[in-house]
Amino acid sequence: MNCAQIKEQLVDFLYGELSANEQAAFSEHLRGCPGCHAEVTSHQNTLGRARAALSGPLAEEPPARIHAAALAAARAAAAPPARRPAIEEKPGFFAWLWRTPWLLPAFGAASVATAVFLVRVLKNPEVIPGQHPRSLDERSIGASTATPPPAPAQEPAALPAAPAAGLGPAEAKKAKTPGALGEVAKQASHEARRLVAGAAGKGAAPTVAEPARRKSGDLDHLIAGSKASGTAGGGTPSRFAEPPPPRPSSRTSAEEDDLLGGLTGEGKSASAAAQAGAKPAVNEAKLAKKAKLARDATGAEALADESEDRPAGRVGRQADQALLEKREYAAPPPAAAPAPVAAEPARPSPRAVSAANASAALGAPAAAPAKATAHADKARRAAPAAEAAPAKVADSMAVEPRSDTGESSKARAKDAAGPSLEESIRKAERLFANQDWSAAAAAYRDLLRRFPTHKDAAKWRARVDQSLVAEAEARQRKDAQTGSKAAKAKSNDVLMKEMK
Amino acid sequence: MTDEALMARYQQGDVAAFAELVSRHEKRLWNFVRRFVADGPTAEDLLQEVFLRVVRSAAEWRPSAKVSTWLYTIARNLCTDQARRGALRRADSLDQTPGASRDDSGSHRIDRLAAPDGNAEKATLDREIATRVDRAVAELPVEQREVFLMREVMELSFAEIATATGASEPTVKSRMRYALERLRAALVELHDHAGAAAAEVTP
């Protein structure tokens, strides 16, 4: 290393950026070169003094006024960022409103109008187009508890099972005509046992259950309605699927019966028969009868095989939905079928029930609605019998849904990969892109209701809000042109309401 | 919490996070700006402008960018712009004694700042060194001054300085060496004076 190289590497040496080898060579040269040694030493001294000066006498505290000015600027600038996400964050809007004092009187007027509007909404849900009065509730519930709206489906469905558990098959038998039905029931129970074996609960069969889910929102309402009438005294929020207490009151039974069998002639007769005996058992009888129909109509075993990879609880959930859906939407099953009394003490485990339910879902495509109903019902018939058997089906019917709620909802979100979901998303996005705000909001709301735990749920929720805000703004613009104060108040109402 | 986390929070509207960032960096920024432009009121305006720019462009900041480098680059750009404008003004009046006014104000400031301690001689020497460092830095060419101050005041690495200035790292190191040469020259004289004074005292 020569003196020129020492100059080259001076800075690296002073700041310790030489490699070990370079460092050694550098030092080596300094030992043999007094000139370089003196120069490097004087640089070290200079640097030391400069540092001492810069951190000592020359170091100054910044003027306090600059700190204050910087913070004032930051505070002022923080306002727009808070305002921009106002679409997604509630506080932003109110903060903005608060900073815009001249709007406060208008806000006050709008609040009054909101109250009026809300009263109207409560009286007549159609005031908000495309929005069911419950859907807001559901949205928020889905967000906060991750409990899917369809959850209540389990409880009403379980109701017949639980009371019947105590009364047992004998009651059902008593309620119904004997005869060849015994054979039918036996077959049904055999069926159920096979299903136990089949539905070992492994994976998922999304497409199959899709029809069940499609109407789940509507089912919610149906179920909610049935609960309201059937279990009015319960006082337990159905959403969380408390195990329903046995409630063999004639009212409950009749109501349930209306729900379950209302669409079929036999339902009525079964109901009537049941009135004479143990009330809950009536459902069982009717269900058993439908089970017969189901077995006749479809290869239950094949279906069970298909449903093999579904976790039982999930399957049961969907089957319940299918059941209710079919009841709601399907034509009545053929009236000719005999009514097998479900008395055969099958040994349906929770899985058996679920599997049977799954087969209901599997058989549910619109072509054979009665089939689906019957399958699910068969499972239900099996449920009470289980009380005698080791497996506590009644429990499973009532309790499983509760413990399974999270999984089921997850499963539903996962299953949402079906074409229907994608189609719905595409539709919603198209509407959103076309700035068809109210339709877009409705579409996203629908998605949220059906797939509350989908990974994009937050985005959908934001889209709903954005659409509503955009709609309100568009309306305001329009109102500003027309000068319609009433319309403005209304759009504010919608905005404020949705912001909550 | 890291600078970057604070910045992210400020992007969400958390002004307290911004206040913390200012507190962390304002002293170094101030000393950088103050040494760079050597004029108190101008330095104050520049530092304020640094923070205003940070506020204005906070939305564009991405977490991948190191906040300190970002801050100091803003400060450096403002300072070099200002220094070039100042250089143009100075070129108009070359006959004036360069740094004369700075000399006065600088000396007075350092007189005020120097801590009065028992060793009056040492205090005097420190003051003298500070004055000379101050002046020497102020008289460095802009490219050398910025490199020197970014390294010694802002404590950036040569690589970071290269990024901030758009020069290569060897170039940055080369400028640093020239800056150190000038500083040494400014202090050698003092060294000699101090040595001469000491020599006078000793015999």
Layout of helices and strands, plus pairs?
The complex is a heterodimer of chains A (500) and B (203).
Chain A: H1 3-8, H2 10-14, H3 20-32, H4 34-55, H5 64-83, H6 90-98, H7 104-123, H8 135-145, H9 154-175, H10 181-198, H11 206-214, H12 216-230, H13 250-261, H14 265-276, H15 279-297, H16 300-306, H17 312-329, H18 350-362, H19 369-385, H20 393-415, H21 419-433, H22 437-450, H23 457-482, H24 485-499
Chain B: H1 3-11, H2 15-37, H3 40-56, H4 67-92, H5 100-113, H6 120-139, H7 142-152, H8 158-165, H9 169-201
Helix pairs in contact in B: 1-2, 2-3, 2-4, 3-4, 4-7, 5-6, 6-9, 7-9, 8-9
Structure overview:
Chain A is built from 24 helices and no strands. The longest helix of chain A has 26 residues, at 457-482. Helix content of chain A is 72%, strand content 0%. With 500 residues, chain A is mainly alpha-helical. The model of chain A is unreliable at 81-90, 132-182, 195-282, 294-419 and 483-492 (pLDDT under 50). Chain B has helices at residues 3-11, 15-37, 40-56, 67-92, 100-113, 120-139, 142-152, 158-165, 169-201. In chain B, helix 6 (120-139) packs antiparallel against helix 9 and helix 8 crosses helix 9 (169-201). The longest helix of chain B is centred in the last third of the chain and has 33 residues, at 169-201. Mean pLDDT of chain B is 78; it is low at 93-108 and 195-203.
- What is the helix fraction of residues of chain B, given as a range? over 70%
> What is the helix/strand order of chain A?
HHHHHHHHHHHHHHHHHHHHHHHH
Report the β-strand fraction of chain A as a percent range.
Answer: under 5%
Shape of chain A: elongated
In angstroms, what separates the terminal alpha carbons of chain B?
Answer: 59 Å
Q: What is the helix tally of chain B?
A: 9
Q: Quickly count the helices of chain A.
A: 24
Low-pLDDT parts of chain B are 93-108, 195-203
How many DSSP E strands of chain B? 0
Helix content of chain A: over 70%
Shape of chain B: globular
Biggest sheet layout of chain B:
none
